[in-house]
Amino acid sequence: xxxxxxxxxxxxxxxxxxxxxxxxxxxxxxxxxxxxxxxxxxxxxxxxxxxxxxxxxxxxxxxxxxxxxxxxxxxxxxxxxxxxxxxxxxxxxxxxxxxxxxxxxxxxxxxxxxxxxxxxxxxxxxxxxxxxxxxxxxxxxxxxxxxxxxxxxxxxxxxxxxxxxxxxxxxxxxxxxxxxxxxxxxxxxxxxxxxxxxxxxxxxxxxxxxxxxxxxxxxxxxxxxxxxxxxxxxxxxxxxxxxxxxxxxxxxxxxxxxxxxxxxxxxxxxxxxxxxxxxxxxxxxxxxxxxxxxxxxxxxxxxxxxxxxxxxxxxxxxxxxxxxxxxxxxxxxxxxxxxxxxxxxxxxxxxxxxxxxxxxxxxxxxxxxxxxxxxxxxxxxxxxxxxxxxxxxxxxxx
Length: 398
Ligand SMILES: Cc1ncc(COP(=O)(O)O)c(C=O)c1O
What we know:
alpha/beta, Aspartate Aminotransferase, domain 2, 4-stranded mixed sheet, binds pyridoxal-5'-phosphate
């Protein structure tokens, strides 16, 4: 099928809940994806933070194909090696004790909230169920994770929404403290708000939230669905902030391109999650886990150290481009603010025309390149983006 046929067929039959780019992609290798007509695109999106090893990484393809040919699914009524191995690697890498596997970020966050409430009910009895999240957060699209998402724009149409959530402005410790009462069981946050505009939380604020959680025995849930698995230069973004939370959620980059989510927790939290308390037909699927095992084996500390150097090269280059007012985020989770009235959506469209795929987050341009990028990929991105920005109309005279 050519681009026109694919786009026409999709538009006729797929629900229009996405603002798709007018672009079909049929194959890819490394950081390059190709349209049906063979036009190459340099990918600085990773499928929104998913294809951490790029397109069709040979080791990932081999592991996934071999597992698909050996045993594609068993259900969670039986044990499989890829699932057990992945859980062991995740625990060793993060310092957490147990893993529940789901299929997406939203599902992982649902599991995290359930685990936090169960811990609280077991220890303190019913009624201690409130989860405090941050204004401008994003935690997913299921009804509970939409409710957890601290953006009013997501709290329309689909009500009634769940009880038991409250929202504190990021960075405002007093506001968060004021929300804590005898019904509160957990605080849930992203260390870098991704969909909210690539906004990193201040380390002293996070340290104070941790101290508050410890004092009140509230569980601290860190949503690392977008920040996790090497995206910020460390395996968990928590490592930049110097702590191990009670619960961490992962998805996106963990699978390298197949659907997977994970809820990691301490033994104290895991103790309540006994048989029957939670489940998923597909969670821990051996094919998805086989791919994720390759992702984990590839993203060693040494590898991430090199990735971090490339992130610095990218950031240094971006700062010098025309109309760039400032950068946000950590590592390869980059937000770009423009001056002179330049709109991120216009930059995205112009980059796509020139063969570079980028994202937006709120008013910012957002880059989430695969973690296997090279110095040449960074240079190519800077050249295209720099060219696009140089051609943007000059600011209107006052
Ligand atoms: C921080 C965060 N949490 C949760 C989600 C939801 O993940 P999924 O789309 O896999 O359900 C996202 C997706 O963008 C996210 O960025």
